[in-house]
Amino acid sequence: MGVEMLSYIDKKSPIHSLTGATKLLCFIMWSFAAMLTYDTRILLLLFMLSVTIFVVSKIKLRDVSFVLLFILIFLLINNIAIYLFSPQEGVKIYGSEHILFSFTERYNITLEQLFYQMNVTLKYFTVIPAALLFIVTTHPSEFAASLNKIGVSYRIAFSVSLALRYIPDIQRDYRNIALAQQARGLDMSKKEKLPTRIKNASSIILPLILSSLDRIEVISNVMELRGFGKNKKRTWYSERPFNRKDYIALFFVGVLLILSLFVTFQNGDRFYNPFS
After folding, report:
1. The model's pTM
2. Has keyword Metal-binding (predicted)?
3. pLDDT tens figures, 143-168
4. Same domain as 41, residue 108
5. Closest residue by Cα to residue 131 from 28, 17, 14
C-alpha cells in the first residue's frame, strides 16, 4: 500500500528526532525569513538549504509527489495571474525597463518582470519543502502537544490533531468506496471519457460524506463521555522535552532569520536590485 497523502511518515532521520515544538517554531521562523524578503541571494540560500534538509529527512519525492504537483499547478496559475493583472510590476519595483519581447504597449516581457516573478517562485520553493516536511515528519499527537506548548488552547490543538489524523482516513474511505462502485459497473479508468469519469466519480461523494459524518458523531460522543474540555489544562502523552538537537536547530534557524532580516533591510529596501 502506498503512503497516504499528507500523513505522518515514520523514518529514522535527524528531522524526525526533533520535537514537534522545535519543528513548529523552526517552520514559523523559516516562513518569516522567506516571506519578508525579496532578496534573491537570501531566497537562493534558503532554497538550497530546504532541498538539503529534505534529503536529510529521508522523505522520498514520490511520497509527496501528488501534493507537489498540485502546488506547482497553483504556482503556474499564480504566475500567469501576476503577469495578466500587473505585467509592469517588476519595472515599477526595480525602476528600469529591459524589454525582451513586446506584444502591446501594456503587455511585454521585461527582464525586470521575469526577475520579480522568479523571486515569487523562489518563495514558494523555499517554504513548500519546509511545510511538507513539518507535516509528514510530525506525528499528529505530537503536533497538538507542540501547539499547546507554545500557548495555543489544547482544545484548538486537539482539533488540529484530529483533522490531520482524519486526512488518511478520508483517503482510505474514498478508495474503498471507489472500488465498491467500480465493482458495481461504474468505470472511472482512463478508458472512459473525462465527463463520464467525473460523473461516475461524483457518485462517491455522498457515501463519503455519510461515512465522514458517522465517524464525526462517534468521535464527538467518545470525547464527551471522557469529559474532554472540562479542565483548563491537560497533559500530553506524546510531548517530549527539548534536547541538544532541538536547541541547535532553533539556534541555526534563528540565525538564518536574523541574517535574512539584516540583509533584506540594511538598505531600507526588501528588493535586491541587480539592474541598478
Report:
1. 0.74
2. no
3. 788 777 777 777 777 777 777 777 77
4. yes
5. 28
